[in-house]
């Protein structure tokens, strides 16, 4: 597949599945077994997407940039999320700042083979977002 075709597959995956929550499309985007040990299986990805849409209705993403070479596509995207529904059973510690709109950026590197995602590795600004939302605080150095 061409790099442009791979970018289109990656874009559709992020928008159709992650943002819009169309988990029924996961088999059309993911290799059946997850293919890579560090990547969620399609079933685990489905559960993760449904969970995020349940606890944060209105979850939105914006694709900021995409670069492709060969079978790899780098996707810089931004998530906008308001955790507004506590799941049952409630977690011991709330995983997100409850009731606050938060935004963070994620860099994902996906590998696409025969039109299916076989690898998806991401790094994000999670810690910075949690600090900005007031959930985490930075330790202040003690005076000398």
Would you write up a description of this structure?
This protein has 144 residues and is of the alpha+beta class. Helix content is 29%, strand content 30%. The chain has helices at residues 3-19, 26-29, 42-55, 126-132, and strands at 60-69, 72-82, 101-113, 116-124. It has a 4-stranded antiparallel beta sheet. Strand 1 and strand 2 (72-82) form a beta hairpin. The longest helix has 17 residues, at 3-19. The mean pLDDT is 85.
List keywords for this structure.
globular; 30% strand
Identify low-pLDDT runs.
none
Described by its quaternary structure, the protein is single chain
The profile of the biggest β sheet is: 4 strands, antiparallel
Average pLDDT level: 85
> What would you call the shape?
globular
Tell me the strand order in the biggest sheet: 1-2-3-4
- Helix and strand content put the structural class at alpha+beta
**What order do the SSEs take from the amino end to the carboxyl end, as H and E?**
HHHEEEEH
The helical percent reads 25-40%
Give the end-to-end Cα distance, rounded to a whole number of Å. 61 Å
So how many helices?
4
Number of distinct beta strands = 4
Rg, Å, rounded: 17 Å
> Into which percentage range does the β-strand content fall?
25-35%
Give a nutshell description of this structure.
This protein has helices spanning 3-19, 26-29, 42-55, 126-132, and strands spanning 60-69, 72-82, 101-113, 116-124. With 144 residues, it is an alpha+beta fold.
